């Protein structure tokens, strides 16, 4: 059960704590950075793939702990088992998500894969997963593919309770949803799920805007490739969860080798320091662009959650603000959306999101292309829809670029 009090960083190496619902930026700067003494100000990057073994008995004990998904007892043994930079980043994420532990991966998809493998019972008798659509196209494809031998039932946020069975091991949702930017009521989903753990992909929110554990989520994942890295130059994923889940998920990581590289961990840990100021600045520009787009005659509709329009947004609510990503649909349908993507000059037509520069993409044609037409229609992913991830550029210059692109015939 989540403790909504002070959560002190794991394993005593750092002293900064994050409090539930805290709006302090301090943990973003300091979490996971303790224990350096006078050796360094910035955590050194440890690229070692192996560690010398001075004491065989001690190393055997450490290996036994690591092999079963635990932490090292002294010796790190081997990079696939443990790395100090990865460990520091994980400690920071756990503190920021108000959960006891975190496990980092080479990508967001690697994190989701490990969770699904860990959730399935070893004998395969329990392998039912409820997916709340829409989800990121890659997650949807993974669940649909049959690769991981899980049985998936697709649900809406309102129908989760109807699909829970004795062999259900996990409920998977996103909030805000990729690509429609619709918010899912996490507390309501958790209530319906009952004792079944709920995994929330919080990539669009980051802990700055939403800490799903406060709403009852058992696990929170991020594609760190997005806002946490923030600069479009590092791929990574992370899951925050309790000790039992962390042990199971770390064991899968140790066995399958989907580790985050130490340099990537260093970059992601560094990215956390500026995350709150980036998110607030990008969110302010996104809110302004959403407002202007909603008044533009070439735009049929805009999807961007606001305090006025959603009871899930606002101080103390599920989400502190609408976020940095919005979706909008052109009245001219596919051709108009395609033109905007081709005509923007300052904005980059590209997938991904959360970078310091603004990106635009066409979900139906690219990120969510693999969904069948029925799933696209049900999820509201139409041919005229564009998804805009707003960066740190001057909002007037972004608007001028978008407006000119929308005018082009
Ligand atoms: C919401 C969401 N979850 C997961 C992923 C997968 O992350 P990665 O590309 O780091 O594997 C993405 C990628 O776009 C995403 O948008």
TrEMBL record:
Pfam families given in the database record: Cys_Met_Meta_PP
Location of N6-(pyridoxal phosphate)lysine modifications: 226
Cofactor: pyridoxal 5'-phosphate
Keywords: Pyridoxal phosphate, Signal
Recorded GO MF terms: cystathionine gamma-lyase activity; pyridoxal phosphate binding
Gene Ontology CC annotations of this record: cytoplasm
Stored InterPro entries: Cys/Met-Metab_PyrdxlP-dep_enz (IPR000277), PyrdxlP-dep_Trfase (IPR015424), PyrdxlP-dep_Trfase_major (IPR015421), PyrdxlP-dep_Trfase_small (IPR015422)
GO process annotations (BP): cysteine biosynthetic process via cystathionine; transsulfuration
The organism's place on the tree of life at top rank: Eukaryota
Signal peptide: 1-18
Keyword hit for Signal: yes
Family: Belongs to the trans-sulfuration enzymes family.
Record protein name field: Cystathionine gamma-synthase
Organism: Diacronema lutheri
């Amino acid at each position: 059960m989540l403790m909504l009090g002070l959560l002190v960083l794991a394993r005593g190496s750092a002293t900064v704590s994050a409090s539930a619902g805290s709006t302090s930026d301090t943990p973003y700067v300091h979490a996971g950075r303790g224990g350096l003494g006078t050796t360094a100000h910035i955590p050194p990057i440890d690229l070692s793939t192996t560690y010398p073994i001075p004491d065989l008995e001690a190393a055997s004990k450490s290996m036994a702990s690591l092999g079963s998904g635990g932490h090292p007892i002294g010796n790190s043994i081997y990079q696939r088992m443990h790395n100090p930079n990865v460990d520091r980043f994980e400690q920071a994420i756990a503190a920021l998500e108000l959960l006891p532990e975190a496990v980092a991966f080479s990508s967001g998809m690697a994190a989701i894969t490990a969770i699904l493998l860990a959730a399935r019972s070893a004998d395969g008798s329990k392998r039912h997963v409820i997916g709340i659509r829409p989800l990121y196209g890659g997650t949807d494809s993974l669940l649909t593919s049959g690769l991981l031998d899980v049985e998936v039932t697709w649900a809406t946020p309102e129908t989760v309770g109807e699909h829970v069975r004795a062999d259900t091991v996990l409920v998977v949702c996103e909030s805000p949803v990729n690509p429609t930017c619709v918010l899912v009521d996490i507390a309501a989903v958790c209530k319906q799920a009952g004792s079944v753990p709920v995994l929330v992909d919080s990539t669009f929110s980051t802990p700055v805007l939403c800490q799903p554990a406060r709403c009852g989520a058992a696990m929170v994942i991020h594609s760190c490739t997005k806002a946490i890295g923030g600069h479009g130059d590092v791929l990574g994923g992370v899951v925050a969860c309790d000790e039992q889940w962390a042990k199971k998920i770390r064991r899968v990581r140790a066995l399958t080798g989907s580790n985050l590289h130490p340099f990537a961990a260093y970059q992601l840990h560094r990215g956390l320091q500026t995350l709150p100021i980036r998110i607030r600045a990008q969110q302010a520009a996104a809110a302004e662009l959403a407002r202007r787009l909603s008044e533009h005659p070439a735009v049929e509709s805009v999807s961007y959650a606001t305090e006025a329009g959603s009871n899930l947004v606002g101080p103390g609510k599920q989400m502190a603000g609408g976020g940095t990503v919005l979706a909008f649909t052109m009245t001219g349908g596919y051709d108009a959306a395609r033109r905007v993507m081709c005509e923007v000059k300052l904005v980059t037509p590209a997938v991904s999101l959360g970078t310091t520069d603004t990106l635009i993409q066409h979900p139906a044609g690219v990120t969510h292309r693999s969904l069948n037409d029925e799933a696209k229609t049900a999820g509201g992913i139409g041919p005229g829809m564009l998804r805009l991830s707003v960066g740190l550029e001057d909002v007037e210059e972004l608007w001028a670029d978008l407006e000119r692109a929308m005018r082009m015939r």
